[in-house]
Amino acid sequence: MNIDIGISQANREEIAQGLSRLLADTYTLYLKTHNFHWNVTGPMFQTLHLMFETQYNELALAVDLIAERIRSLGFPAPGTYKQYAQLSSIKEEEGIPAAKDMIRLLVEGQEAVVRTARSLYPSVEVASDEATADLLTQRIQLHEKTAWMLRSLLE
Where is the Ferritin/DPS domain (predicted)? Predict the structure, then answer.
């Protein structure tokens, strides 16, 4: 069936491509956060272990919301590590960083997601896609707050 939601095919495709990058960043950050949750050590273990768990659980829910928005626009959501590696602006870590380095890397990851989300606004505004704009606003608010909380641990 044709999709007739008041957004052209070309605009929906452009937005879906941007959301695919956001999905890849979010999933990559989820995986990194989960890895750090499992492998953190040191005097801040308990605090970081629990904080990282809260963060990866939120990211797990977010990937579903983003993927479902892509599907709502009529396009397949990427879902493989290969696709995520190609689309994500966040790189995987080799080895197990020290706890403070984990925090710094997660700040960088949170901020990368914000930049990716923010980069979609021009396409979303042209298409008057309020649903995607709302999703982006919510994601930006959450990632900026999480980055601030993580940065606070480094001061």
Answer: 18-155
pLDDT digits over 60-114, tens only?
Answer: 999 999 999 999 999 999 999 999 999 999 999 899 999 999 999 999 999 999 9
Contact 23, 31 (CB under 8 A): no
- Computed from CA positions of residues 110, 111, 116, 118, in that sequence, does the dihedral angle turn out positive or negative? positive
Q: Which one-letter DSSP state was computed for residue 40?
A: -
- Judge whether 1 lies within some domain: no
Domain-embedded: residue 3: no
Given a contact cutoff of 8 angstroms between Cβ atoms, the answer to whether 150 and 100 are in contact is: no
Choose among 60, 67, 51, 72: nearest CA to 28: 60
Q: Does the residue 43 lie in any domain?
A: yes
pTM to 2 decimal places? 0.96
